[in-house]
Amino acid sequence: MGERPAIPLAAERVQRTCALSDSVSRLRYVKGAREEALARLGIRRVRDLLLHVPNRYLDFSRMEKIARADVGTDATIVVTVDRVQVKRPRPRLQIVELSVMDETGVLIASFFRQPWVAEQVHKGDIVALSGKVTFGYGFKQMRSPFFEVVATADQAADFARVLPVHPVTEGLSASWMRRIVSSALADVGDVCDWLPASLAARRRLMSLGRALREVHFPKTVASAGVARRRLAYDELLCLQLALLTRRQIELSGVSPTCHVTDGPHVDALLAALPFTLTDEQRAAVDDILADMAAPRVMNRLLLGDVGTGKTAVAAVALAACADTGTQAAVMAPTSVLARQYADKLGPVLDAAHVSWALVTGSTPSDERSKTETAARDGRLTVVFGTTALLSEALEFSALSLVVIDEQHRFGVDQRAALRRKGAGADLLAMTATPIPRTLALSLYGDVDLSRIRRRPRAGAGMTTRVIPPDSLDLAWGAIRDAAAAGRQAYVVCPLVDDSDDGSALDDVPEQLRATQGRPRSAVATLEQLRSQIVPELACDLVHGRMSAAEKDLAMERFRSGKTQVLVATTVVEVGVDVPNATVMVVLDADRFGLATLHQLRGRVGRGDVPGTVFLCCAAKRGTTARERLDALEATSDGFELAELDLRLRHEGEVLGYRQSGGVSLEISDLEGDRDLVEWAHEDAREIADADPRLVSPLYRALALEVRDRFGAYFEELERSS
């Protein structure tokens, strides 16, 4: 038998682990201004500091001489500063220029708008520089390289290592951050691992203590990557367990409904559909009906690109409620979409002898009163609506199914409020917003997924063209040609009117919202179309600030053909179905998110005539904004576009999911860590099945870690116990 660890040694390790929750003020060098700077980075405890991982590494272990540093490549050199100059070529442009040298040559390092460099570097200093080598004016050069002053020439050899670069803020330099992290690792770095050893071994992950040391001060760049993966897995696993805990909280103490899924109403509805379900649609129906029949509460997300037939799939679930003698509520984000559900599914439900009603903000009071009475008495099976469904006056006799379309457009409280109207009600959430699988697993780890990729009726399709503002005449000409052929067109703008400041633009990163030039407004564009561009055509307006009745009236005029050109904001993004519309012009297209643009263009080419979408923007080729639009021009596959969006932008910005319950992934990279996402999803399900409340000794440390990262979920769990 091996020797048992000494009790004092184990106790010391436990003490160090407990110290992770201490304030960073306990650490050396952390006082006053530095403590305030760390707080601005969200670092208040020792654990926050140790999980504040570097965002890049400089490999100073392989240094080059100036003469051997190839132009066009990244290089690290240790040089002596020969001259420091401050230049002001323009009133607002200040450049600090360092002339540096080693025994093989001279190099010029230029720092733009970084005047503090001249205060930190002086003639005769030994400096390590890392950056891309260029050539100009007879010298090798570096533009704004990373630099570090080496105290003496004798220390240059000691500097040959992998140098971490942590995210920092004003008042806290990268070198001071390294010093503080190093002291924290020395004091409390050898901590207990919250991950069960068997799980770490199965996934071949580093121990926690080693991962913390290697991620901050790696021996090699490769070892830093392995360490980061361990910490990323921890983050993803804790998120998945927290999501599953939330699901347990929501379903605690409720009695699920075991629906009848093979009754006469389901058969009649399938027979009443004007088409036969595709294999993908049938598979989604089978998933949903199996969940509804099971003795557990359904929590399913149906993903389907524009026009893939999610509505028909949902209709089968509604019919199952009729066979069970229970009720269903279908909540849509806009009155336009809610009414369209009623228009499309109403006749099919009628044919299947399933009673239904529609409730929106514009529903007359007497009609609403009748609906409320019928729902309360149980004489009404399906109610379509907007957030009007949340009214306290609307009560259900036996609500067993909640269907929420474009569910990310509703707040968590709104979704929960509707589910509370039927204890143990099954949930079917639907979205036409393409979501990469890794993002779906991360944001919806507690939800079962069904996906429909192919459209049963593709329509004539559409062509997407990216045009600059000076080519708008092409788009206006296409609208005139479409109108002459009896067709219709959309013109989409980012803003409602010229008083908007643009702060509420769609899911676009801040740097794109700050682009020079004011976005076009729908009100001003309508006036321009009527007075100058197409005065001969009937133009109308729809936007989110209009009342529900006004929007319904505008959409009905367009749907009936009375309006030839509809100027709109993104209110037409989802659910609007006018097959006669064949042209769309999106102004300031770079101000919209990629998924929003994909949804918008799905409004044209839905009939027998091909559609054309013009994306007008001033973004230059090679920019991120233009790359996104060029991708739209190249492909119509929504899921392919979603994967691209995930590569181009942080997952918290993708597809408008900023409000994902406060979840923020700091270490994980959903694009690069696909395998970790899958592992975390599988492992969390396995752990939750074995020990839902994580009370066994095997998972107790992990439970504490999940509590620390997502404490709100566990506080709610304790209150409900």
In terms of topology, how is this protein built?
Layout (H helix, E strand, L loop, with lengths): L6 H12 L13 H9 L5 H5 L5 E4 L14 E17 L2 E10 L2 E8 L4 H4 L5 E11 L2 E5 L2 E5 L11 E4 L8 H15 L8 H6 L5 H9 L4 H31 L12 H9 L6 H15 L5 E6 L5 H15 L2 E5 L3 H17 L4 E4 L5 H13 L4 E4 L13 E7 L6 H8 L6 E6 L5 H7 L4 E5 L9 E6 L4 H13 L3 E5 L17 H4 L8 H12 L5 E4 L5 H12 L5 E4 L12 E6 L7 H8 L9 E6 L7 H11 L3 H11 L25 H17 L6 H13 L1 H10 L1
Helix pairs in contact: 7-8, 8-23, 8-24, 8-25, 9-11, 10-11, 11-12, 21-22, 24-25
List keywords for this structure.
4 domains; 21 strands; seven-stranded parallel beta sheet; OB fold (Dihydrolipoamide Acetyltransferase, E2P); six-stranded parallel beta sheet; 721 residues; Rossmann fold; alpha/beta
Mind explaining what this structure looks like?
This protein is an alpha/beta fold and 721 residues long. The protein folds into four domains: 1-57 and 166-192; 62-160, OB fold (Dihydrolipoamide Acetyltransferase, E2P); 264-452, Rossmann fold (3-Layer(aba) Sandwich); 462-649, P-loop containing nucleotide triphosphate hydrolases (Rossmann fold, 3-Layer(aba) Sandwich). The protein is 40% helix and 18% strand. It has 25 helices and 21 strands. The strands form four sheets. A seven-stranded parallel beta sheet has the order 11-12-10-13-14-9-15, sandwiched between helices. Strands 16-21-20-17-19-18 form a six-stranded parallel beta sheet, sandwiched between helices. Helix 7 (208-216) crosses helix 8, helix 8 (221-251) packs across helix 24 and helix 8 packs parallel to helix 25. The radius of gyration is 30 Å and the shape is globular. Residues 503-516, 650-663 and 716-721 have low confidence and may be disordered.
